[in-house]
Protein backbone atom coordinates (compact mmCIF):
# COMPACT_ATOMS: atom_id res chain seq x y z
CA UNK A 1 0.00 0.00 0.00
CA UNK A 2 1.34 3.38 -0.90
CA UNK A 3 1.08 6.59 1.08
CA UNK A 4 -1.66 8.15 -1.04
CA UNK A 5 -3.91 5.10 -0.65
CA UNK A 6 -3.53 5.31 3.11
CA UNK A 7 -4.16 9.07 3.07
CA UNK A 8 -7.31 8.85 0.94
CA UNK A 9 -8.59 5.90 2.99
CA UNK A 10 -8.07 7.86 6.20
CA UNK A 11 -9.87 10.86 4.69
CA UNK A 12 -12.84 8.68 3.75
CA UNK A 13 -13.06 7.31 7.29
CA UNK A 14 -12.79 10.78 8.86
CA UNK A 15 -15.39 12.31 6.53
CA UNK A 16 -17.81 9.43 7.10
CA UNK A 17 -17.53 9.72 10.90
CA UNK A 18 -18.10 13.49 10.69
CA UNK A 19 -21.15 12.94 8.45
CA UNK A 20 -22.63 10.56 11.03
CA UNK A 21 -22.03 13.06 13.85
CA UNK A 22 -23.51 16.00 11.91
CA UNK A 23 -26.59 14.01 10.90
CA UNK A 24 -27.16 12.93 14.51
CA UNK A 25 -26.94 16.57 15.65
CA UNK A 26 -29.75 17.64 13.33
CA UNK A 27 -33.31 17.86 14.59
CA UNK A 28 -36.02 15.59 13.29
CA UNK A 29 -38.15 16.97 10.45
CA UNK A 30 -41.21 15.16 11.77
CA UNK A 31 -43.61 17.75 13.21
CA UNK A 32 -46.48 15.36 13.83
CA UNK A 33 -50.05 16.48 14.38
CA UNK A 34 -49.07 19.59 16.32
CA UNK A 35 -47.15 20.94 13.33
CA UNK A 36 -50.18 20.52 11.09
CA UNK A 37 -52.53 22.30 13.48
CA UNK A 38 -50.28 25.19 14.48
CA UNK A 39 -48.78 25.83 11.05
CA UNK A 40 -45.09 25.52 11.91
CA UNK A 41 -43.93 27.29 8.74
CA UNK A 42 -45.40 30.61 9.89
CA UNK A 43 -43.32 30.85 13.04
CA UNK A 44 -40.38 33.20 13.53
CA UNK A 45 -37.91 30.36 13.13
CA UNK A 46 -39.63 29.21 9.94
CA UNK A 47 -39.09 32.59 8.32
CA UNK A 48 -35.43 32.76 9.34
CA UNK A 49 -34.70 29.15 8.55
CA UNK A 50 -31.45 29.89 6.68
CA UNK A 51 -29.87 31.34 9.81
CA UNK A 52 -30.62 28.54 12.26
CA UNK A 53 -28.18 25.94 13.47
CA UNK A 54 -30.19 23.20 11.76
CA UNK A 55 -29.79 24.96 8.40
CA UNK A 56 -26.05 25.25 8.95
CA UNK A 57 -25.81 21.56 9.86
CA UNK A 58 -27.79 20.68 6.74
CA UNK A 59 -25.39 22.70 4.59
CA UNK A 60 -22.37 21.05 6.24
CA UNK A 61 -23.93 17.63 5.61
CA UNK A 62 -24.32 18.39 1.91
CA UNK A 63 -20.72 19.60 1.60
CA UNK A 64 -19.38 16.54 3.43
CA UNK A 65 -21.46 14.24 1.24
CA UNK A 66 -19.85 15.78 -1.85
CA UNK A 67 -16.37 15.29 -0.35
CA UNK A 68 -17.21 11.68 0.51
CA UNK A 69 -18.44 11.04 -3.03
CA UNK A 70 -15.33 12.60 -4.60
CA UNK A 71 -12.94 10.69 -2.32
CA UNK A 72 -14.74 7.42 -3.05
CA UNK A 73 -14.57 8.02 -6.80
CA UNK A 74 -10.89 8.89 -6.47
CA UNK A 75 -10.18 5.60 -4.69
CA UNK A 76 -12.14 3.68 -7.31
CA UNK A 77 -10.23 5.26 -10.18
CA UNK A 78 -6.89 4.79 -8.43
CA UNK A 79 -7.57 1.11 -7.81
CA UNK A 80 -8.75 0.61 -11.39
CA UNK A 81 -5.68 2.39 -12.74
CA UNK A 82 -3.24 0.58 -10.47
CA UNK A 83 -4.74 -2.85 -11.09
CA UNK A 84 -4.37 -2.41 -14.85
CA UNK A 85 -0.59 -2.03 -14.51
Question: Can you describe what's shown?
Answer:
This protein has 85 residues and is an all-alpha fold. The chain is built from four helices and no strands. The chain has helices at 3-25, 32-38, 44-47, 53-83. Helix 1 (3-25) runs antiparallel to helix 4 (53-83). The chain is elongated.
Summarize this entry quickly.
This protein is an all-alpha fold and 85 residues long.
Task: Kindly state the number of beta strands.
Answer: 0
Which spans have pLDDT < 50 for at least 5 consecutive residues? none
Order of helices and strands: HHHH
| β-strand amount | under 5%
Radius of gyration: 19 Å
- Give the structural class: mainly alpha
Mean pLDDT: 79
As a percent range, the share of helical residues equals over 70%
Overall shape: it is: elongated
- The separation of the N and C termini measures 15 Å
Biggest sheet descriptor? none
Which structural traits does this protein have?
single chain, 85 residues, mainly alpha
Would you spell out the secondary-structure blueprint of this structure?
Layout: H1 3-25, H2 32-38, H3 44-47, H4 53-83
Helix pairs in contact: 1-4
